């Protein structure tokens, strides 16, 4: 605590303790005597001054006090003459001024002005009253009045017994002793004082000179003893060095808090030496402390304890050896990382440039304009209408969004919410507007919301939301920007957390724009190595423009020509393939002891997973189905099953689904599908039944279209204005990406197991066997792993050829049948048996 603070605190505390220190509360006699002493001191002072100037004349008049004819030359007249003569000439010379000063001090003390420390001042004064006249006597040799008679006589006496030199030695010894005692001028103390000049060395100096600190602490004690109430000062004095004990640990405590009470236990505390007091528990001393200062004292006490430990025990410090818990793999990976750095999944397309914001069209001013007339009109209509139905309102508030204005009303006490809810159609009729939605009550707000479409909605452009800080700085795994909320805030969600999205909306209501907005936001945030799309577009028009980014972002089946699937029959294969990919990923995650794709990829980047064992960097896969109803109509259960399976399981392995439909009827969006799509986005739908199918509540049928949407995140429904991205803008983005260097092909999905007999392995034909068949057989047997991807790696083959070889190995009986995510069983146990087997095949 800074010194000034301490002083301030001290003063405040003192004042608090001595309320009568205030002048107003001084008793009259006190004031009288206080002022009287000061007055006398002034008389003395003036008399002495005047006497010194005219002492020869004054001296002659000293005895003529009552003679009127004799005029005095002293300022204070004959009294002044007498005083000067008595105190200066006949007594102590100029030291008489000290008497005047002491009178003054007594006056101030009576008035409770603590300008002086009384005992200290009296001590100093007495010393000089004795010493100064003798000294001046020795200097003036009795000439003049400076030494007074006393001074001269004593000087003369001393000179006669100890000689001149002895006299001077006594005088010098007296003054030196005085300075040593009063100002602590011992050599060690001088060093200490010098040390104090340097703040940094304070602690060190204090440690070196504990006795000096004791001295200071005693001084403080003295002060406190003077200041404290009698009842408090007694135990303090009794406790002897106890407060000193606290001093090195905390010099502040007694200084700051004069109100100290010491319990009787204190007397039993022994203080054998200067440092041992630090070990005494502060519990025996109760101090009036503020919480902050108590903390300071506590800190000081703690440090004291440490000191004690240092004093009495051998304090050994051992630095714990770093426990080497890294197993072999970790060590190896650490070495690899040291050598090659972390695995960089972006390295293949290291120069890939993310799309620039300029590719998106600037639609100009998107500031929300406030139409006061419209607001007022709507407000009056709502209030009037509710009044007609006897619904009183105590408060109404409007929040203007891009498409709708939310009027929040607080109904009068006693009005039932259901009564207002019932009026939805009446309000819509009255406001003659489509898209009125009543939210009763507003979740967490205690109001009822009425959403009224604005006459001139503000468009939310993709450019404005993509360029927002919220999107740019987002650290979501798969950030999807939908648009803006009713209160004009940008709304984003993480597809990886959704984890699958069901979208519905009648034709022409903004569903395709919505899908484009989602895809665009992902393209703006994710590198091609981190994200792959599987696109299913039965309408054949909506997603085709994304074919340009096939070699960057799209995934397809090994033998598929186009990455964008338009044939519903092929969709089944793709979905099954995704299921295989999902199972494979689960296997990889299991082997890597990871729970999520994020953990797995991190481990892979840290080179803790060996690619030789099939490990690879796993990009997120997003399956986009633009018209799900079409699929269900044509493929039915065959599609529903893998979709449901993916929706149930694929989240942890980074496969996410976005399924959109125009017809959200229950036979399209079955219970099984719905249950696994917690996130739903509804554009305007035809009927409230459709709305219930998609959102489990009405409302989507009340939307106004053009991107006006409701988003359900599993908890609440949020009304949004979807960001608008036009087809030419998407074209520009895909062209920009497509023009850059991409991978050699689209991301190849695993071949899907098929029930189609034409696809079965069939009988083994030795004449049609692949050139690498035997080599592959040896690899499979030696590793005892019937894995196509392993063959791919070891023989550096494409997936198709490796798959064909695996089929041949199966047909020949070397490996077992397809086993889902697991590797096929190897039927031959060692290489020599294999050689015999191959020989037999040739024959
Ligand atoms: N977010 C939006 N902001 C402004 N206008 C929009 C928005 N979304 C859609 N629109 C308007 O609505 C029109 C139809 O949108 P969109 O093509 O997305 O409908 P859709 O539901 O996909 O229709 P369909 O199912 O027939 O393809 C767009 O051309 C555009 O004019």
Automatic annotation (TrEMBL):
Source domain of life: Bacteria
Gene Ontology terms for molecular function: ATP binding; DNA binding
Feature: compositional bias, Polar residues: 13-22, 229-245
Subcellular location: Cell membrane
Compositionally biased spans, kind Basic and acidic residues: 1-11
Designated name of the protein: Stage III sporulation protein E
One record GO biological process: cell division
Pfam families: FtsK_4TM, FtsK_alpha, FtsK_gamma, FtsK_SpoIIIE
The family this protein is said to belong to: Belongs to the FtsK/SpoIIIE/SftA family.
Membrane topology: Multi-pass membrane protein
Residue ranges crossing the lipid bilayer per the database entry: 31-53, 86-110, 122-140, 160-181
Gene (UniProt): spoIIIE
InterPro entries: FtsK/SpoIIIE/SftA, FtsK_4TM, FtsK_alpha, FtsK_dom, Ftsk_gamma, P-loop_NTPase, WH-like_DNA-bd_sf, WH_DNA-bd_sf
Binding site for ATP: 505-512
Keyword presence, Metal-binding: no
Ranges where the record places region Disordered: 1-22, 218-257
Domain FtsK residues, every copy: 487-692
PANTHER family: DNA TRANSLOCASE FTSK (PTHR22683:SF41), SPORULATION PROTEIN RELATED (PTHR22683)
Keywords carried by this UniProt record: ATP-binding, Cell cycle, Cell division, Cell membrane, Chromosome partition, DNA-binding, Membrane, Nucleotide-binding, Transmembrane, Transmembrane helix
GO CC terms of this entry: plasma membrane
